[in-house]
Design goal:
heterodimer, A: Rossmann fold, 3 domains, 5-stranded parallel β-sheet, two-stranded antiparallel sheet, 14% strand, B: mainly alpha, Fumarate Reductase Cytochrome B subunit, 65% helix, elongated
């Protein structure tokens, strides 16, 4: 398999030093576990050193920089003043909006707290492009899950501009590195309807899965660890767009969840994790007013209610003699006479006559 | 000219009466096997058990995908026919049907012995058609998004992603299956004469 360098720079033969363009880059961490930063550090080819020293003018990455306080936030202000409209902004994590964003303070500026909301809106408006790294920044993720006390939102909902979503929990190092490099050297990559780069999120995991033939043949794993298709134990591969089966994980591209015997949990999906849980069930739980119930349970309840309704109606029909009457009616030749049809002029007229007679009787 | 046996709301008993014309019957019998195949294969796809109804997942999926085209064609044809012949006026409830609904419900709940008669469809059937009119396109849209995941990805966007689309598709199918079960129960037990009309077009009021 070709590495990211060879894919992105075929002309340079994978030699990064032949490219000179280095865009300023700011990586802000908001409500995040920093898993995306750690994953990014695991980038193998190009590695983190090449990304920082050769590819980008990395100005700010909260997770690895030594500076703190005003010294670190002054870098942000300097970038804003010197390179407006030229730098790339990467946001990792959701943005809390409750109490003007005070639920997440990323630093201080002039002795005052700099909230994530303020920073993302200010730097996002001036950036050349905005990238949401990880599912939290792209779609909300666990921080925006119900009941969402901090009223957290994905980056696209606090900015009045297009955002490139690079989801994943965590984001694959090649997905984020590839997107950033594509942005710097070739401009915006082709995006899908959820603003994800198609080069990484163009096909479902299910369609690329090594165990797909087991799915088609109906050979399913009964528990994690079984070497068969994990569909029946909740694999979200059929509804998840990502290239995990071909790219694989663990820095050196050696494995991925299904290969390791556990179902895909759909971590790049909008609504993750709420809409993918329980992870080991085929369908997710559904939040109804006052109660959370699995979608399959709703199906079972609906089937039971329908069976009881039909069974009850049929039994009542038999007990009341209506069923036997209908059978007798069906077996006998038709009688003669007339019948009045409801919702017709004749029925209307009869109803009026009845009402007039009733009124007269009352008088 | 077929005898519809309805003079301003008066119907003569014992006379062969026209009820369903040929296009409607053909469409109904395209829909019925397609819908039943979709339900059976859909249930298997949702919870696959080997050698139950289908040999394997591939067979279930092929059945589902083949039946979906018939279902989609039915929906387009039925929609066109309803608009062209203005048949939608008879399909959906009007104010008279809503006013008559309590009377019909009392009969179906065995609280009233006298069965109200209607020109073609009773108010509950018309309510059923409203659900069909909502659920059929919903199933087609969500099913299309799941069928062609890449090309028709835009269809899953209003539902918040493919995972949610699948859940909506399943819940829509559950609703439809319950309604179809009810429809089949009433069709088989209400009147044998009317049941015959979906095959040959005619019934005889008794």
């Amino acid at each position: 398999m070709r590495n990211l360098k060879q894919i992105c720079w075929p002309g340079a033969g994978g030699d990064l030093s032949k490219e000179k363009k280095r865009l300023p880059l700011i990586w802000l961490g908001t409500n995040t576990c920093d898993g995306d930063s750690i994953s990014f550090l695991n980038s193998a080819d190009p590695n983190f050193m090449e990304i920082v020293t050769v590819l980008f003018d990395f100005r700010y990455l909260h997770f690895v920089m030594a500076a703190q306080g005003d010294m670190s936030t002054s870098v942000l202000d300097d970038t804003l003043a010197q390179d407006p409209g030229n730098f790339i902004l990467v946001v990792e994590g959701t943005v809390p909006t409750r109490n003007n964003g005070l639920y997440c303070v990323i630093g201080t500026r002039g002795g005052k707290p700099l909230t994530a909301l303020e920073a993302v809106q200010e730097f996002g408006a001036a950036a050349r492009c905005v990238v949401a790294a990880g599912t939290c920044a792209a779609f909300g993720g666990p921080y925006a899950a119900h009941p969402n006390p901090s009223e957290s939102k994905p980056v696209s909902e606090v900015l009045d501009r297009a955002v490139i979503n690079v989801p994943g929990c965590p984001v694959h190092p090649a997905w984020i590195a590839g997107t950033l490099i594509h942005l710097a050297w070739y401009g915006e990559p082709e995006l899908d309807d959820f603003h994800r780069p198609l080069i990484f999120y163009g096909e479902t995991i299910h369609n690329m899965c090594q165990r797909r033939h087991y799915f088609d043949s109906g050979i399913f794993a009964a528990q994690p660890g079984d070497p068969w298709c994990t569909y029946r134990i909740g694999c979200k591969g059929p509804v998840t767009f990502a290239d995990c089966p071909s790219r694989q994980w663990n820095s050196e591209h050696v494995s991925w969840p299904v290969k390791a015997g556990t179902p895909c949990i759909g971590c790049v999906n909008p609504g993750f994790p709420e809409r993918d849980m329980p992870f080991f069930k085929h369908l997710p739980d559904v939040n109804l007013p006052g109660v959370t119930v699995n979608a399959n349970r709703i199906g079972a309840i609906a089937a039971t209610v329908t069976a009881l309704g039909i069974g009850g109606h049929f039994t009542a029909g038999v007990l009341k003699g209506r069923m036997s009457k209908k059978i007798r009616k069906a077996l006998h030749p038709p009688g003669t006479g007339f019948e009045l049809l409801e919702t017709t002029p004749a029925a209307e007229l009869l109803s009026r006559i009845r009402k007039a007679l009733l009124d007269k009787t009352k008088e | 000219m077929r005898f519809r046996n309805n003079l301003l709301g008066i119907r003569i008993k014992g006379v062969k009466t026209f009820r369903h014309n040929r296009p409607l019957r053909v469409m109904h019998w395209v829909l019925a096997p397609a819908a039943l195949s979709l339900m059976a294969s859909g249930l298997y796809i949702n919870k696959p058990y080997r050698n139950f109804l289908f040999k394997n997942m591939n067979d279930a999926r092929k059945t589902h995908f083949m039946a979906q085209y018939f279902f989609g064609l039915y929906f387009l044809a039925r929609g066109y026919y309803a608009i062209k012949t203005r048949g939608y006026r008879k399909l959906f409830p009007n104010s008279g049907d809503i006013a008559s609904l309590p009377k019909f419900s009392l009969y179906e709940l065995y609280l009233n012995k006298k069965q109200p008669k209607y020109p073609k469809y009773n108010p509950l059937q018309k309510l059923l058609f409203i659900f069909f009119a909502v659920l059929f396109p919903l199933q087609i849209v969500t099913g299309s998004a799941l069928y062609s995941t890449g090309r028709l990805q835009f269809l899953s966007r209003p539902f918040g992603g493919l995972g949610n689309t699948r859940t909506v598709h399943y819940l829509g199918a559950v609703g439809l299956m319950s309604l179809v079960a009810g429809h089949m129960y009433f069709a088989l037990t209400e009147s044998f004469s009317k049941l015959k009309s979906i095959f040959n077009g005619y019934f005889t009021p008794k």
